[in-house]
Specification:
33% helix, four-stranded mixed β-sheet, three-stranded antiparallel β-sheet, alpha+beta, 19% strand
């Protein structure tokens, strides 16, 4: 029997997110305030960019390098389509130490990010590459836009909004306290979403005669 997981419902709309934020003791702001909307989007994207969360849709793009990916959150895999060989990530500064103008040509072995695009090194104009990546959600704009984050973790976004509001009030002690809560929420998400498997690998140990093994 195939297990069915609870989809958790649709979660908060953009308007509901702002209203819940105000109910945290920020009723001196207005849910239509441009600052509140900005804090909401910054907190939302801060959380989405924190890890390659499984709730972010996985996409694939293919073509010649450099590849422009407007909605990139995290690269999951970068491979040469022709050979199937994976390329390894490198910092652009590391590569320029080896090749100051990045003009070396040949079969590519590294990929790097520069000027908003994904490039390869050495440069290979004839190569075709495939990138698997998680997509960064679009900004919340309309009141009925919904967060891509599972409903049970959307309160972490409100914590992110609150730390920005406290800083706006110059209440840095409260901002530090709510940052601790934000970090706790992120750790909980990591445990639940990125480390869900507790069924450990088992080693087969030979204990005696041929064919006699213990798990």
């Amino acid at each position: 029997m195939t297990p069915i997981f609870d989809p958790e419902g649709e979660g908060l709309t953009f308007k509901e997110l702002r209203e819940e934020f105000l109910e945290r003791g920020f009723d001196d702001f207005n849910e239509g305030d441009a600052r509140v909307k900005r804090w909401a989007n910054r907190a939302y994207h801060e959380l989405c960019e924190e890890k390659p969360w499984p709730f972010l849709a996985t996409s694939t793009i293919e073509g010649a390098a450099p590849l422009e990916v407007d909605d990139l959150a995290h690269v999951l895999g970068f491979a040469d389509v022709g050979t199937g060989a994976p390329l390894t990530f490198a910092d652009e500064r590391e590569l320029t130490a080896l090749d100051p103008t990045l003009a070396r040509t040949g079969p590519a072995s590294r990929w790097f990010q520069a000027s908003g695009a994904l490039s390869v090194w050495p440069e290979d104009a004839s190569g075709v590459y495939q990138v698997r990546y998680t997509r960064l959600p679009q900004e919340l704009e309309a009141d009925d836009d919904r967060l891509a984050i599972p409903a049970r973790y959307q309160e972490v976004v409100i914590d992110g909004m609150a730390k920005r509001a406290y800083k706006n009030r110059d209440n840095f002690e409260a901002a530090a306290a709510v940052t601790v809560e934000w970090e706790r929420g992120v750790r909980q998400m990591v445990r639940a979403l990125l480390r869900p498997n507790y069924d450990t690998n088992r080693k087969m140990l030979r204990t005696g005669a041929a064919g006699d093994y213990a798990g």
